[in-house]
Amino acid sequence: MPGSMPTGGSTTPRRPAPDGQRAASPGDPAAPVGLPTADAAVLAAVAQWWRRHRAVVSAEGAIGVAYSGGADSTALLLAAATHWPGRVRALHVHHGLQAAADAFAAHATAQAARWGVPLTVLHTDARHARGDSPEDAARRARYRALAGAARAQGLAVVLLGHHAQDQAETLLLALTRGAGLPGLAAMPECRRIDGVWFGRPLLALDGTALRASLRAQGIGWVHDPTNDDPAYTRNRIRLQVVPALAQAFPSYAITFARSARHAAAAQQLLDELAAEDLARVGNPPRLAALQALSPQRLINVLRHWLRTCHGASGTDAQWREVARQMAAARTRGHAIELRVGAGRLRRAGDVVLYQPDDEAVAPQRL
Ligand SMILES: Nc1ncnc2c1ncn2[C@@H]1O[C@H](COP(=O)(O)OP(=O)(O)OP(=O)(O)O)[C@@H](O)[C@H]1O
Q1: pLDDT tens digit string along 112-151?
Q2: How far is the CA of 228 from the centre of ligand 1 (A)?
Q3: Which alpha helices (DSSP H) does 86-203 contain, by range?
Q4: Can you list the domains of the chain with their CATH numbers?
Q5: Whole-angstrom distance, CA of residue 197 vs CA of residue 64
Q6: Interval between CA 26 and ligand 1 midpoint (Å)
Q7: Which of 72, 144, 215 to probe ligand 1 with, by most ligand atoms within 8 A of CB?
Q8: ipTM
Q9: Residue nearest ligand 1's atom 2 by CA
């Protein structure tokens, strides 16, 4: 694994994990040696997360842990296996993108075996299309694979190892893209994707403390060298922006996480308002009812309608133009036809309709 860090607790899978146990050599199905003591803060975070969300996620089924072999998911796996003895299933995604992926999978397999946790390696094709971000393509492929495995294994939830610094990075990344509230809300603690619940119990925890605790116990982890590549925006944020931020504002991760929670709460209110407004304007929405709303509220309900009923989204500029044209359409003959996302929003008499691009050609195919 090129570029891996030989210092501290992180390790290349080609070297034995410095955990005082058996070496994690690829293909070595290490015999279970029992669990070391889990970090108290991580254990408490897992227990609190479960108390908050157990009523929503199914109380039945095993608990999945998305285990990359990195430090954070290692700490999470240990805490989960301690909290739910015999009930945890580890899932490792082999992205197939770098030569080291085999070694990551071998390390994860050996570590899970030492702790007596069944692990499944999921192979994905995470290559990105032209113009698509490689990070986004890999993330989408990863969640698809995790959700598919969770459904196949009947898992109650899949837990992820994101912590407070990851949350702050996500917020900063959203700012660099000019995101709206959904982006500023960053990563939720609990979310359903493709019919599967995903949970992030460690979002309030300090990642540095988490690593220090693993190191103190001699528990090893793998370091993905692509995390150091400054070609990726997230890495530049972590390697260049965050150190300066942490020096000037030592509590930045905690306060940023609080801001993300405020944004998430505000977005939830906007969604509730949009659902109420949609019930009032109808589906498809009536133009006159839309015109009775303020421009921002009109955009809010149409955004919600497009997302929930058509799985589509538009840009800021497109929505501003929608609001402008709807306000201007005061006569019966005033046509509206606008591009929004991968489709068109148009007036049909008293209502507005959305026609996705792929549907526009469907009648010719039939
Ligand atoms: N290859 C993978 N297989 C399974 N889960 C993964 C994988 N990559 C990431 N995850 C999950 O997503 C979380 C956040 O991803 P991130 O890219 O920050 O991971 P990492 O830095 O490689 O590993 P870690 O977060 O464990 O230190 C991980 O903690 C883990 O739960």
Answers
A1: 999 999 999 999 987 776 667 777 888 899 999 999 999 9
A2: 15
A3: 101-114, 134-153, 164-176, 181-184
A4: 10-256 (3.40.50.620), 282-365 (no CATH)
A5: 10
A6: 19
A7: 72
A8: 0.97
A9: 68
